[in-house]
Each structure stands twice: as C-alpha cells, then as structure tokens.
Specification:
The complex is a heterodimer of chains A (408) and B (248). Chain A has 12 helices and 20 strands. By secondary structure, chain A is α+β, with helices and mostly antiparallel strands. In chain A, a hairpin with a 3-residue loop joins strand 5 and strand 6. In chain B, 38% of the residues lie in helices and 23% in strands. Chain B is globular, with a radius of gyration of 18 Å. Chain B has 8 helices and 8 strands, in the order H-H-E-H-E-H-E-H-E-H-E-H-H-E-E-E. Chain B has one domain: Vaccinia Virus protein VP39 (Rossmann fold, 3-Layer(aba) Sandwich). The chains are: A alpha+beta (408), B alpha/beta (248).
C-alpha cells in the first residue's frame, strides 16, 4: 500500500497539534487532518478562553519548543485557595491553601490564553517538515486492516498511513466509526466561562469557591484580569447565559465577592454543559484515541487539557520507542502499552473529580460540615497538602519523558 | 517478497491461521510477546553501539546482514528487517517457515526464511554481521559444538546476542514450576532445567568457541507493571550476553 504518512491524526486542536509535533520530532511522518479552517485556529483576538497549564504540561511544551514563544504571555499561579462558600455569605471558616513555596518546582502552573497557545502550536506545525497539514477537511470514512489505515475526506481525497489517532473531542467521529462505544453521564450542570477585568491585582492567586450549585474558579491572567469558570445547574445557567452583559455581571457579583474590587467583562462569554464521557476502549486495530476523544471529564481544576497532553506524551513515547526497536508501532500489542499506561490514571481522576463535584455541589448542613472538616484536615497536614499540589501540577506517577521536559 | 512454495490452498489457510496465532499478543505466544520489547531493546542497543549506528535515524541497520536462529514466526526477524537489516531467519521446525513467510508478506517485509540449522548454514559458508541466538542454546544437544558453528557464521568483528536461562534454585522455581506448572505460560516440558547454563559457564563456552564475551544483562519480570526490563545485576533467571568474533 502506498502511504502518505505514518500516522494520521484526526483533529488539529491543541492535543492533535502537540501530538503531531512530538511524533514528527521523533522521525515519523504525520498527516494532520482538521475540520477547522486555518483562519479559525489563528484568530488573533482574545475570546475569553484560557487554560491552567500544569508544570508537567509546560515541560512538554518546552520540549516541543512551543513554550518559549508564549512564556512571557503566561501568568504564573503562585497560590491556590479553595474555599467552601454560599453566595452572599462569604467563605467558610476552613479553607485549603496551596502555596508554591511548598513545591520545589516553582509555580504550580501557568494560566495561558487559548489564542496564544493555539497560535504558537499552529506556527510550530507549519514550520515542521514532518507534518502535512490538511485544514478545513472533514473525515467521512476510515478503514483499518492488517496492511494499514486510510481515511476518506469530504473533499473526495483519501490519506493512507499506518495508524489513525483520534484527537477529535468527546464527540469523536474516529471512535464512533471504529465502533467504540462510550460510557458517561451528564451532571445537570453547565460551565459558564468568561474573562473578567478587575480593579485590584490578583497577586497570582487562583481561587476555587465550592458553591452549592457547583464550583466557581477564578484563575489569574496577566494584568488585572482573571479567567472565570462558573458552574451552575443547567436551568439557572441557561437563564444567566440569556442575560445581557450587565445582567450577567449582576448575577456574578454576589458569587464573586468584592475582594478584587469592581469587575467587568474582558472577552466573550461561553457555556459548556458538563458531562463525563469515557470511551470504552482507547485503542483498536491500528487506532488510538487521545484527550477528550478518550475521556471527557468534569473540568474541575482545569485537568482536561493537562490530561490530554499526558496522553500525547505517553502515546508519542510508546509509538516512537516501538518504531526505534523495529516493532510494528501500529500493532495492538504496542497500542495497548499506551492504554495500560494512561487509562488507569485518567479513570481514577475522572471518577475522583466526579466525587469531588458531587460532594461539594450540595447544600446540606451535614455535607458542608463534613467537607469543611475534610478540607481543614488536608490543609493541616503539610505532606498531604504537598501531595495534592504535586498531583495537580502533574508531577506524580510514571511520567513520560516529554512530561519531564526531555526529548524522545 | 514472493514466497516460493508449492503448497496447496488448505495448507496456506492453515499457515495463515498459525501466523495469526504467532502474532496474537494474547495468544499462545504471549510470554514471548511480553519479553520481546526487552529483547529488541537489548539487541538494537548492542548492535548500534558495536556498528556505530544511530537508532533515531531511519533504517539504522542498512547494510548489515542478520541471522535469526530459531526464528519461529519472525518475532525478531521482522523488527530487524524494519530497521533496514538483510535478514535470514532459520528454524529447525519446517512448519514455521511458511508461517513466517506469510506474515512477512503481509507486512511488506523481505526476509529470507529457511528451514535449516546453524550447523548447515556454517557448512555452506554463509556469514553474517549479527547472529541472534535467543533462547536456543538451552534446547540443543551439544552446546559447545553449536556455539562453534555460531562463531563460523560470524564475520570477523561480527556480534552474537545469546540469551538463555540460568541454572539455580530460583530459575527452577520460576521457569519450571512458575511458568510451566502454575502460570501455564509455557507447555510442560518446554524446558529441561538440567540444560540451563549459568552465565559463567556460558562465558567460558563462548571463549572456548573462539568468541569474546563483552556484555551480559538480566531480563527481569516485574509483576506489578506486568512487563520485563533489563537489569545490570539480576541475572538469576533469564539473561542475555553479547560476544564478538575477534577481527583478524
């Protein structure tokens, strides 16, 4: 079979681009097929979306030569304060406080606007000779067999390779076409996402308020701005999303509080219904799933992109190591190593976040008392607190080389 | 490569089924599939170091001629062919040859599979840069004579990777009782513990055969990660050696 590339990546978002770079740097030829036109990936205006990148994710971006382009636009997260609260009542007496002074790796992570990360990845993809980019192309069919893999495009063309990787999100067409089912449930919650300009400096502190309807995260951006992830029950969220900007801010103010002074919107408003969606298998015949295509989790603590980049690092390492020892890197025996490495970790985290959300999205007095005591307990024990921090920074477990900042 | 066979269609179907069995990571040869990445890492690293090849480059073993003794379904031959080597796969079991050929054809790999023995190849004057002699020596009737034939097969400066099982109480417990009787990874009677060889005995035999042993490492199974890794110190059960045929 004539092959256009070794690996066909479906989905050219953040995970797809990062995986393409990692594989191409390892010597494989990559076709990156993306339904989005280039212009959409390179939109220069701030649209309100931002990511909390864990230390390990930043190391991967450094190893790929992408972080250097965006480092001066990122805001280090110096402290995290997690507080139990009710709108209008302020913080509960106990709260969790994580200070990066307790972590030898420095800041616990960085906040980076979506537009900067997307652009830096797209620039790196364009400059990488090992990647053939197919923007604005939709995959309509795929086939895999002993001889290889092939995808058919809506434009009429076809691309042939050895391995298909689906980086196409929780509604993954790649998984659906391979007959891989999904398990999951909705939370009856919607995340309202926006950026806020505020009067007073945030001092690099990230806040997580656990409110009865769902968590509210306030994450520091460069300047006097913060990124907001505000979860509410679906019907309330729908109502808030329908308000004009003034009404939206009026609804946010009592939840946000006044510790940062006056607030105003600093970008667009987004809303995402929250759900858990796990693929029943992460690998198949000459096929692997990465990021939300494998596991769409509750976005508490901003772990979605960080988990996706962990998948990227693990899959790239497994595939490139296999190729260098002469194995058929698209064989199930090889791909199962990736699944074994990543799946347990992710499912544990997904179910853990699910439990955290269920425990905290609750207004019963007993639950409040129980979780306040729990948070105080975690907060009082430095070893336990540091473990939470290292976990959140992505520094625990058997780390792929890229997450340690080393090349493949 | 076109297979030169005169066998009929039902035979071919049987061989295809056997090839699928050889290459099924969860099937009968699961223990070999589990060990294989570790064996490949060892061989590729030793060959790259000896012949000054860059494993991150495409086809790093181009121009090197490899012999895979006891090739079976081609679990070592195929990876070496993918890395650019010219590979001859030899097996004393005749039925393995068409099976290995069929799989190599599916993979688009040109490998010269032959029903023959190390002694017969040496007799015919064939020579190689690398001889892969993995988990064979504990099955032959006269190891010293066999290793002399292996030396004849090596070009001056050539490299042989030779793995086998150590002979001690632990290897009896692990390789015979554990692998054959408890885990049933291998059919009973696969190994005769009395034919296992200690690393020092193997080094001595290699030297008597005119080879220069240069490296030995253990293959160690970790039941927590359910995978094998290389060990500098633990050669107590499975181990592997590298030896060279002195140039000149």
């Amino acid at each position: 079979m004539e092959r256009d590339a070794d690996v066909l990546i479906i989905g050219g978002g953040l995970n797809g681009a990062a995986l393409g770079l990692a594989l191409a740097r390892g010597g494989l030829r990559v076709a990156l097929i993306d339904a989005q036109p280039l212009a959409a990936q390179r939109a220069p205006d701030f649209d309100g979306r931002a990511y909390a990148l864990a230390v390990a994710s930043i190391r991967l971006l450094e190893a790929l030569g992408v972080w250097q382009d965006v480092a001066d636009r990122a805001q280090p997260i110096l402290e995290i304060k997690a507080t139990d609260g009710r709108a209008g009542e302020g913080a509960a007496p106990f709260f969790l406080h994580f200070d990066h002074g307790e972590l030898e790796e420095g800041p616990m992570g960085h906040m980076l606007e979506d537009r900067h990360l997307r652009l830096a990845l797209q620039d790196a993809v364009a400059a990488e000779p090992g990647i053939t980019h197919h923007p604005a192309e939709t995959v309509v069919a795929q086939e895999t067999g002993p001889e290889g893999a092939r995808v058919m495009l809506a434009s009429g063309g076809a691309v042939a390779g050895r391995l298909i990787v689906g980086c196409d999100g929780r509604a993954s067409g790649t998984a659906a076409r391979a007959g891989i089912g999904r398990t999951g449930w909705g939370y009856g919650q919607t995340a309202l996402v926006c950026a806020i300009a505020h009067e007073l400096p945030h001092e690099g502190i990230a806040h997580q308020f656990f409110m009865p309807a769902g968590p509210l995260a306030i994450l520091p951006l460069p300047g006097n701005r913060s990124s907001i992830v505000w979860s509410e029950r679906d019907e309330i969220a729908r109502g808030i999303a329908a308000l004009d900007d003034a009404g939206y801010l009026a609804a946010l103010r009592p939840r946000f509080g006044d510790f940062l002074g006056e607030i105003a919107l600093a970008g667009g408003r987004f809303s995402y219904p929250l759900s858990l969606s796990l693929a029943n298998s992460w690998v198949g015949e000459r096929l692997a799933l990465v990021g939300d295509a494998a596991h769409g989790i509750h976005p508490i603590a901003g772990q979605g992109l960080n988990l996706g980049l962990r998948d990227v690092a693990a899959l790239a390492e497994v595939v490139i190591d296999a190729a260098r020892r002469g194995e058929d890197f698209a064989s199930l025996a090889v791909l199962e190593r990736y699944q074994r490495w990543r799946r347990f970790d992710t499912t544990t985290l997904a179910l853990g976040m699910d439990t955290v959300n269920r425990v905290f999205s609750n207004d019963s007095t007993l639950m409040r008392l129980g979780r306040d005591i729990g948070m105080a307990a975690v907060g009082a024990v430095p070893g336990l607190r540091r473990r939470f921090m290292r976990e959140a920074a992505g520094l625990t477990g058997d780390l792929p080389r890229l997450l340690r900042g080393r090349p493949l | 490569m076109a297979s030169e066979t005169t066998i009929d269609d039902t035979e071919i179907e049987k061989f295809q089924a056997m090839a699928a069995e050889w290459w099924d990571p969860h099937g009968k040869f699961r223990p070999l599939h589990m060990l294989n990445p570790c064996r490949l890492d060892y061989i590729t690293a030793q060959v790259a170091a000896e012949f000054d090849r860059d494993l991150t480059a495409p086809a790093p073993f181009e121009g090197l001629r490899f012999l895979d003794i006891g090739c079976g379904g081609g679990l070592l031959s195929e990876p070496m062919a993918r890395l650019g080597a010219d590979v001859v796969g030899a097996d004393a079991a005749e039925r393995n040859i068409p099976v290995a050929r069929i799989h190599a054809d599916q993979e688009g790999l040109a490998i010269d599979y032959r029903h023959t023995s190390a002694e017969a190849l040496a007799e015919a004057g064939e020579t190689f840069d690398v001889v892969m002699n993995m988990e064979v020596v504990e099955h032959v009737s006269d190891p010293p004579a066999y290793l002399r034939a292996c030396r004849e097969l090596l070009r001056p400066g050539g490299l042989m990777a030779c793995s086998t099982l150590n002979r001690n109480a632990k290897s009896f417990a692990v390789a015979i009782l554990g692998a054959e009787h408890v885990m049933r990874w291998l059919p009973r009677g696969t190994h005769d513990w009395r034919k296992f060889i200690t690393p020092d005995e193997l080094y001595a035999m290699l030297e008597v055969a005119g080879l220069e042993p240069v490296d030995r490492k253990g293959f160690v199974f970790n039941p927590l990660s359910w995978s094998w890794s290389l060990s500098h110190r633990d050669l107590s059960v499975n181990y592997v050696t590298t030896s060279l045929r002195p140039a000149g």
